[in-house]
Each structure stands twice: as C-alpha cells, then as structure tokens.
User: What shape does this take?
Amino acid sequence: MNFAMVVHGAPYSSEACLSALKFARAVLESGHSINRVFFYHDGVHTANSLIAPPQDEAPISEQWQEFGIGNNIELIACIASCLRRGVMDETEANRYEKSGSNLASGFTISGLGQLIDASISADRVVTFGV
Amino acid sequence: MSSILFVFSRPPHGSINAQEGLDALLMGSAFTTCSVLFVGDGLMQLVSGQSTDDLGTKNFSLSFGALKDYGVTGIACSEPDLVARGLNKDDFLIEVETLNAAGMQAFIRNHDKVLNF
Assistant: This one.
C-alpha cells in the first residue's frame, strides 16, 4: 500500500514529529511505500538545520534527514508555513534578503499543491499532530 | 480522481491551524473535489461578525465566503457540536448543512481521503 504522510507537529514541542518518523520506518519495514512526507504548520520546524538538541535527546531532524535521503523519499516543507516560521533555503533567503538560509539537507521547500497531489495519489493519508 | 474531505476541529484564532487549514482547502479545491466538515470548536470558525482588530491577526474568516466560488459545495457541520455550543445555522457566515452522528459517518465515508486540521 502507498502512504502519504502529513506532519503538523514540531520536533520536541510535539510528540507527533517523532511518532511520524517511527510510523514511516514501520511502513517501509512492512513492505509498503511512502510517496511523500509533507511538513505543514509547525511541522516545518523539522526542516530547520540549526536545531541543536541536548546530547541525551534524539536528533529528530537529523533522523528525518537520514530517513528521507537513505530511502529516497521526498520530504517537502510547505513554503507558506516555512516563511512564517523562518525556515528558508538559499533562494528564499535571498528573495527576502535574510542573513542566512537554514533548510536541512534532504528537505525541499514547495507549495501546498504537493500535499494535495500526494493525498490524491496515495492509497492512504496519515496525519500526525492534529 | 480522489475526493478529499477536510475536517476542521480547531477554534479560529487561538492558533494558526484554522487559517492554514483553510489555505489547504482552497488549494485542494483547485485540484480535485473537496468538501469540508466542521466539528468541535472548529464550528467557531464559521461564526459571522468576527473581528481580529484587537488581536492584530488576519481575519481569515472572510475567505469562507469564497468556498462556493472555489467549487467547494459539500460544507457540513456536526449538529451535536452546534447545539452544545449554543449556536445555530443563522450564526454562520455561510450556508452549512448540519449532520447528526450517522450523517457525519456517511459524509466521511463518501470521500476517498480525509485531511484533519
């Protein structure tokens, strides 16, 4: 079965972000597939490369990056949510004349159409953090 | 083409969830058949006469008036949640179908995908 995933919760603030990652791993381990993970609302904080958690806590963003890159799964962060919350790739940072970019590798900034497209084409959509 | 049901359950101005949910609904309606179901405190999003002047936030409730223009024709709310909040349909900005528990089950089942906000 092909899953689309939506993450609304920020790492550390919400348990949803880590639960989603564990679910995503379980989906692949069970022989299913994931067409896209769409980070929306506070979920886009996951794509912030400047997150530096204490050493005795799980590096959630890095684990998402490894998951996405290692399994070749699209991790899309909603552009409108990102801009409100200060998550930017180089293009957006230049466009808005900000001092730097902070989009973590493995993540792509794109629009809400990616959420709808993933929802339409998947067999199931699972949302975390509502 | 898959139909998508958007379920709105959050009050309008305490967080940005309601506003970003509406953004997703308007985008979704450009791609495929979309409907919306208001449950719980999500019903408060529909109350007419909202003003955010003193909050300093955007009064996105005005955008609900555009739903029909975007082709979103399935607009429903939970009747038990409506009654529990002392509201009635006349309090709303737009025309909304009220559904009891069985009606909501059927409404949800009538769509291929559900997105919660």
